[in-house]
Structures are given as C-alpha cells and as structure tokens.
Design brief:
The complex is a heterodimer of chains A (659) and B (256). Chain A has 659 residues and is α+β, with helices and mostly antiparallel strands. Chain A is globular, with a radius of gyration of 24 Å. The model of chain A has no long low-confidence stretch (mean pLDDT 96). In chain B, strand 3 and strand 4 form a beta hairpin. Chain B is elongated, with a radius of gyration of 21 Å. Chain B is α+β, with helices and mostly antiparallel strands and 256 residues long. Helices cover 32% and strands 13% of the residues of chain B. Classes of the chains: A alpha+beta (659), B alpha+beta (256).
C-alpha cells in the first residue's frame, strides 16, 4: 500500500482553479498543430473534449463504437443539468452547489475537484445556449429551473425529459463542425482494445474496426478516455446495451488505477422488471419526484388496487422518515428506503418488488391553480383533474408516454410502479486534479473517471460533470502535459510497442473465437449480473461478498472454457464484441466485490449491512475510511490497494441528514 | 414473472456483407411474452441460433428506450413497425398476435447501404450535419445564457424540431428515400433561434447541397416521413427549410 499524489494546487479552495488556469504552461498555435490527441468515446465528456481540443488547434482523432457519435448513452439522460446560476434568486451559489455535491457524495469526494465543478457549471449553461440547445424557458423568455434530489434550491436546467439528448446533440454538432473542417478525424464503429505505452507514457491505442474486424494502430501524444460507466456489469441496468468498461479496464492493464469501484448508484425510480427475458431497465426521471409522491400500503401484502386504498391507509414513507427533504431525498437514500419497505412485505404489483409513484395530489393542486387562473371559482374535481393533467402532461409527457408504452398501463389514471435499478457508477479510473490517470499522458473524463461524486451522485450532476470535464477542464489541464511534448515527433506505428499491443488484442480475439464452447455470451453476462445484484447491489455483507468473489472466479473459468462465439474475428461480429466486454466485466466484478469488502463502513451507494445506525441509515467511519481506494491491476488476477487520503478543509464533515 | 406463449414466424433479411446478395430467411420463435420488446424477441431468436451453432442476426440497437436512434428495422413494410410514434426498441410484442408472420427488413435507401443483415450505414446523416448543422461558437465564447430572452413558443418550436433522433425512418418510409424531414428539422431548430441567425442562409444551402451529394431523393410531399417518424417531427419543418432555401437566393451575398 502506498500513498498517491492528487496534484491539487496550493492555495485557498476558491482560488485554486483560477490560479491554475493563470499559471498552467501554454502551447503556441504552431505547436498545437503538431500535437495529436486521441479521444475515445463521443458522449458528453468525449465529444465536448474532442470538439474543444480541435477548436484550440490540436490534431484530434475521436473514436466511438456506435454508428455515429450522436448515439452515445449521454443521449438518454432525462431530467436535467445543475448550474449555480441562482436565476431563481433562491440563495444558490457556487459554494452551495459545492457543499451539496460533497454532502450528497457522503463526504467521499475531493474538495478541490468538486469546487472547480461548481465554478464552471455556469459556463456550461452559457455555452450550450450559445450552441442553440433549446433548454426550457418561462413565458418571459428566460430559462426555467426545477428541483432535484439532495438540494433545497432550484438549479436544474432542463429540456423536457430529454436534457441529455439536447446537450449531447449540442456537443455532437460542435464535434461535427470540427470534423467538417478536417480538424477532427472521426472513427465510428471502432472499439478501443488496448492502450499503447511507450517509455512509460500513453502514446496511442489499438482499435478494432467493427465492420471489417481489422485491428488499427493510432498514435497520439496523449490519449483521453471518455468512455462512460460500467453499470452493465449488473447485466440489467439503465445503461445502453453497448455501454462497457473495456477501454477503462484495458487501461488498468497498463497501470492506470481503478478507484472506488464499489460505488454504484442504484436509481430509485425505474420501471420494475417484468420478466426474465428482460434486456435492460428503463429509468423514470428523478424530476418526477418534484410532483410524484412515493407510497406503499400500510397493510402488509395488500392486494387491493391503488385506487381502492384510502388515503389514511397509505404510508408516504419518504415524507414520514425525511420531513425536510421528503420525496426529494438523494437517490441512495430513496433506493434503500424502497428496498426496506419491499423486503418488509409492503411492496406492490405482481412481483411485490415495487412502490407507487403517485401524481394525483399534485395534479389536483395544479388543476386548482389553473382553474383560478381561468377565473373558475370552486372548480369541481373533474375540472381540476382535467386542467391539472394538462400541466403534468406538459412537464413530463414523454416520460408518461414511455411508461405507458412499456407497462401497458396509463400513469395519468393509476400511480406508476417503480423500483430501484442500477443507473450510474461513481467509481472509475483514478485521476489527479488534471484528470490524468496514473499513466502519464492518459486522461479520463466524465463518468469513466471517479473524481467528483464521491460515494453517491446527486441528480442532474452527471451531465454537469461530463461537460465540465470536456469543455472547460481537460482542454486546460492537458496543456500542462502537452507543453512538454512539443519536441516529440509523431511516433510511427510500426514501433514495437504498437506491434506488441496489437498482438495482445489479436490474441484475446482469437482465443474467444477458438473456445467454441456451448453457452452464449449472454448466458455468462446474466449469471454475473445476478451475483452482482444479489451480493454487491443495494446491500452488501462480508459473507455475501466473499461468496460472490468465489462465484465470480468460477464464472471466469467457465467463461474462458465454455463460451461460444460464432463467426470469425475478421468480419462484423457482434457476439465477439460482447464477449470481449463481458470478459472484462467479469474481472471488474471481482474487483468491485474486493473493494466493497475492504470498505468496512456504509457510505452513499455502498451499504454494508454490518454498518448501519439503529434507524437503518448508512454509518460512515471517517476515521478509517476517508480515503479513495485506488486499485492497481497486477494482471495476474490480483490487485494492490493504494490510498488517497481525503482532506476536508472547507467543509465540516458530518453525519449526513435529510431529516 | 410473465411467461410467454406466443408463436411467431419471422421472415428476416440476411445478408453476409455489403457485397453479398441478401435474401429473406424464415425462422420460427416460440414462447414469446407480450411484455417483451421487439428487440428482446430478436434476442430470443439469436440465443436459439447461437445454441444451434448458427450466426445470429445482426441488427443495430443501443439504448433500448427510444432515444439514441440506433435501432431501425423495417417491420411488415413500416419503419419501426405498426405502432405510431415509437422506435423498434419501444415496440412490444403485445402489438402482435400469436401465429403472426412478421417480415423484417433493413432500411432501404441508396444513401444507407446495408452493412450486414439488418444493419445499414447512416453516416450520410453525420456528413449532412458536418456541412452546417451547428452554430459556430467555440468553447468559452458564450455570453450569459439569460442575456438573450427567447419567447417560450419559439423555444418550444425549436425544441420540437430538435427532438429528432436521427434514426432514418423518414428516409426509409419515403418512396424517394428523401432525407428532407431529417435535414429540415436541424435547419428549423437553428433558424428559429436568435443564435442561429448569422449563419442561417449559408447553413441551409450547405446542408441541402450535402444532402443531394449523399444521394438522397427529392421530396414529393407525400408525408410518409412525418407519419412514420417516431418523434412526431412535423412537415412544417420542410416548409421552413424550403422557404429559407429560396430566401437564400435573394439575400445579399454577405449573408451566404
């Protein structure tokens, strides 16, 4: 075990970023033209970085496995993006956004990074509006805001329930502009399979052209991974089918540490699992908790329909347990509370693994307001319902439609049934203040890194972080490294390090094809998912984690001896792609369990059953666990733990309370 | 847990690669639940093919919640299948009956060549956007977001145009394989907003020129694109684009 250096600049918290920007070495325009940067991933964190670096004058190559950079899974983010604009005049400030994020992360994130995030949050909104991103507006023409969990101000900007789509299309258009100008070379349907390291520095990648199967060598003076989260380790999650950990995992094979892998976010409001055919889960945006009240029947195993259960027989358990934040408690708290009620026998629906999200009260409230606006005094219930439904439709129409489409039920008439599902991963590649991993020249942005959300991410903060990293942080910090690389000529890709990396990638592909076993890739992925969900999901225990580790080790053996990958490696082969990703997920799954086992406390998304208060709240151990767990992959199935101590100099570390 | 009892016959387009000749192949699937999505039904088909030692059917898909625009499939003669305003991943088997025969083909358009089976190449859309589907503002040049009020109705109209997911159903639905709905949605979004004004006329000309160069067909106002669009993108956008395209001929050269 050794300590690691996060390279946080000296000085007052509020001055660190400003001072850094003023003192970071610059690269002159003629040198930028000769410096090549590889960006892997084209979501918010990748596309924004690729576009901005190209605007600055660097030569950029960008890679994505989808058919277009616009498909990246950032597109599916629904609810919104936070920024400390204080447009609502409700007392918001950079400090408050910083404070809420640190507290929301259960005091397991780095102060300096989070403060920088809060500082640049305002620039993101400006930039996106300038790009023509149609964020929601009020009748006066100014931008509208709404509330999200874990905050008491309205700082969330949004575009209906499609905020991620609109922000990504903004970044995509900026990227396409640079592609059109020839400043970014785009490689779609390409998957990164190795990081190439020369003399200790990241100098390129091996990417597979997914259509032809050809392995390609690409040089870069620096490499940026904006490759998203690893929620699909659970098989069922709200992530896209293709979302994977492969790029980040291959980086760990080259010496990049993987930090806090056990911090996973289980989102409280998702559509419950309907059958074992299910391939993915669908999120219902947290914004719905602005107007939806969560409840279960007070009676155990109540089989009545929601509409038949009278008001006084309903348990609005979040409002009961957390009166100050009510239905807008952070995600980890809301998810655990739902699990607690269902485990205790109060769940609803045929599986009994669901709770109600009910819009009736607020629909009526909106109806009364609208009636009064229209000059209708003492409106009857039907009028209120009609007018209120129109308001709800305007706010959440696409989400209600999505729910109806999937479940076949009408959420305007009956409450939604929801249950927690894997949604986001706070852990990721360890990065320093500059967003550089422990491999010089290898950077990591967005969900793929671990840096800003601690043990739990607040709603509407993922979009903020992805764009902060890509538009405003990395383009500056990477200069500190590239300014020292100006005399390095592009290294020809016939260098032995490229050949060796390519041979390694080819070896894995050939092995996978050659096994010719009896079980499909999905068979193993589903098994892994079940182990992870049961033992490393919403609640973990020492016993369960130890069992999971031995199960995963066995699963790994079975996979490498019995997986069946049809076809060949030199053609478009989607099963081969999946096989490579699942192989990496299996190794990551084991590390997640190891990390969860190491962390003898409960914090944020990591809940160890042994460590809870009498009321069942997470019990942190700040004396022993106020550190980032950065794991070094030894390559032989073992991992070494390095600790980065977290220092809280500006925030008083406290028991996290939303009561 | 739901158990399925639907039995279906599928006629699926199989094509090894871009150069090979393709054909429709018959498959039977059974035990399908009405709660499955259409793509989950394909997962069942593929699992069966892999177990038998055959190659699975390749199809594009990713988010499986109707927003990434990756899934396609021309189902019983309609892009994204028989329901209105959904993508294939949002189409559920409850929209079909036990015993049905379902024909599944790839998008058919010269500008979208088949890659394999049901997967086509839609890069032409990216190149159209690269030709002008943006506002030229580098990072760090923006003024305060609220310094430019935009009437709500106008912002909402821009949003509705911006809701396009770039799936290509409009092209697949059109007898001419025209991309006018896709191209006009982006042009409208930016033309409706004050930020989009400086490049308005240059943008429409460049994007239309690229659209033509990619080999998309002409628009003959049949409206199939709007009818089949999973996001309900309106034909009004095409009218706006045409207006701007012709206006561009009359504005001063400084603006184009």
């Amino acid at each position: 075990m050794s300590a690691i250096n996060s390279n946080i600049p000296e000085g007052e918290l509020t001055d660190k970023w400003t001072k850094f920007k003023s003192s970071v070495p610059l690269v002159n325009p003629s040198n930028k033209r000769n410096l090549e940067v590889i960006v892997v991933g084209s979501g918010l964190a990748g596309a924004s970085a690729a576009a901005t670096l190209a605007e600055m004058g660097y030569k950029v190559k960008c890679f994505c496995f989808q058919d277009s950079p616009r498909r990246a899974h950032s597109i599916a983010a629904q609810g919104g993006i936070n920024a400390a604009k204080n447009y609502q005049n409700d007392g918001d400030s950079t400090y408050r956004l910083f404070y809420d994020t640190i507290k929301g992360g259960d005091y397991r994130s780095r102060e300096a990074n989070v403060h920088r995030l809060a500082e640049v949050s305002v620039n993101i909104i400006d930039q996106c509006v300038a790009q023509g991103v149609p964020l929601a507006r009020e009748y006066g023409g100014l931008l509208d805001n709404r509330s999200f969990g874990g905050t008491q101000v309205q700082r969330t900007f949004y575009a209906a329930g499609q905020t991620g789509q609109q922000l990504l299309l903004g970044a995509y258009s900026a990227l396409e502009r640079q592609i059109g100008m020839g400043k970014v070379e785009m490689f779609t349907r390409h998957e990164m399979l190795e990081v190439v390291k020369i003399d200790g520095k990241a100098r390129g990648i091996i990417a597979r052209n997914l259509i032809t199967g050809e392995l390609e060598r690409h040089f870069g003076h620096a490499v940026v991974l904006g490759t998203g989260g690893y929620g699909n380790v659970f098989y069922l999650s709200t992530n896209a089918m293709g979302s994977n950990v492969t790029a980040a995992w291959k980086a760990t094979r080259q010496g990049a540490y993987f930090a806090n892998p056990c911090y996973t976010q289980i989102h409280p409001t998702c559509i419950p699992v309907s059958g074992d055919h299910q391939s993915k889960l669908t999120l219902m945006s947290e914004s719905l908790r602005n107007d939806g009240r969560i409840w279960v029947p007070k009676k155990k195993d109540d089989t009545r329909k929601a509409s038949e259960i009278p008001e006084d027989e309903r348990d609005y358990y979040l409002e009961r347990r957390y009166p100050a934040f009510g239905n807008l408690v952070p995600r980890d708290v809301a998810s655990r509370a739902a699990k607690e009620r269902c485990d205790a026998g109060y769940g609803v629906g045929s599986s009994k693994l669901a709770v109600y999200l009910d819009f009736k009260a607020n629909t009526e409230r909106y109806g009364k307001i609208e009636a009064s606006k229209a000059g209708i005094h003492n409106p009857d219930a039907a009028t209120c319902l009609r007018l209120g439904t129109a308001v709800v439709k305007e706010k959440y129409g696409n989400l209600f439609d999505m729910y109806a489409q999937i479940t076949g039920e009408n959420p305007y008439e009956t409450p939604m049934r929801i249950y927690p599902a894997v949604h986001y991963t706070m852990g990721g590649l360890w990065v320093d203040y500059n967003l550089m991993t422990s491999v010089p020249g290898l950077y990591c942005t967005g969900e793929a890194n671990f840096s800003d959300h601690g043990a739990n991410r607040l709603g509407a903060s993922a979009l903020m972080q992805g764009l902060a990293d890509g538009y405003f942080v990395l383009p500056y910090t990477i200069g500190a490294y590239l300014s020292k690389e100006i005399s390095v000529q592009a290294i020809p890709t016939d260098h032995p390090a490229f050949a060796e990396a390519e041979a390694k990638a080819k070896g894995i592909l050939d092995t996978l094809i050659g096994i010719k076993g009896t079980k499909s890739v999905d068979h193993f992925h589903k098994k892994l998912g079940l182990i992870m969900w049961d033992k490393c999901g919403m609640a973990r225990s020492e016993e369960g984690l130890k069992w999971a580790i031995s199960e995963i080790q066995q699963l790994k053996k079975d996979f490498w001896s019995d997986v069946r990958v049809p076809g060949t490696a030199d053609e478009y082969n989607t099963e081969l792609e999946k096989a490579g990703r699942v192989a990496d997920f299996i190794e990551l799954g084991e590390l997640m369990c190891l990390d969860a086992l190491d962390r003898n406390e409960s914090c944020g998304g990591h809940f160890r059953e042994e460590y809870q208060t009498e009321e069942g709240e997470a019990l942190r151990d700040d004396e022993n666990y106020a550190y980032v767990a950065a794991w070094e992959n030894k390559g032989d199935g073992t991992f070494e733990l390095h600790k980065e101590e977290l220092k809280f100099e500006n925030i008083k570390i406290a028991q996290r309370s939303y009561k | 847990m739901s158990t399925g009892n639907m039995n279906l016959t599928l006629k699926v387009w199989r094509q090894k690669n871009n150069k090979a000749k393709g054909k429709l192949v018959d498959y039977k699937v059974s035990g399908i639940s009405p709660d499955m999505s259409f793509l989950e039904m394909f997962d069942v088909l593929n699992e069966g093919l892999i177990t038998k030692g055959d190659e699975p059917v390749v199809f594009d898909h990713d988010c499986r919640e109707g927003i990434c625009g990756m899934c396609s499939m021309f189902i019983n003669g309609r892009p994204h299948g028989p329901k209105n305003a959904v993508t294939t991943c949002q189409l559920h088997m409850r929209s079909f009956k036990d015993g049905d025969t379902i024909v599944v083909e790839p998008w058919r358009a010269k500008a979208f060549p088949v890659i394999k089976d049901l997967t086509v190449n839609r890069s032409a859309f990216d190149r159209v956007i690269a030709a002008g589907g943006f506002i030229s503002v580098n990072t760090g040049n923006a003024q305060d977001a609220n310094s430019l009020p935009i009437p709500k109705a106008r912002a909402d109209a821009a949003f509705e145009a911006a809701a396009c997911i770039g799936c290509g159903a409009c092209v697949a639905a059109c007898k001419n394989a025209s991309a006018m709905l896709f191209v006009s949605a982006k042009i409208s979004q930016l033309a409706l907003l004050p930020q989009g004004q400086p490049e308005r006329y240059k943008r429409v000309q460049n994007m239309v020129a690229q659209m033509d160069a990619e080999g998309f067909g002409s628009c003959t106002n049949t409206g199939a694109c709007e009818a089949e669009c999973p996001k309900g993108i309106s034909l009004e956008n095409i009218a706006r684009m045409n207006r701007d395209y012709y206006s561009a001929k009359f504005v001063s050269e400084d603006e184009v």
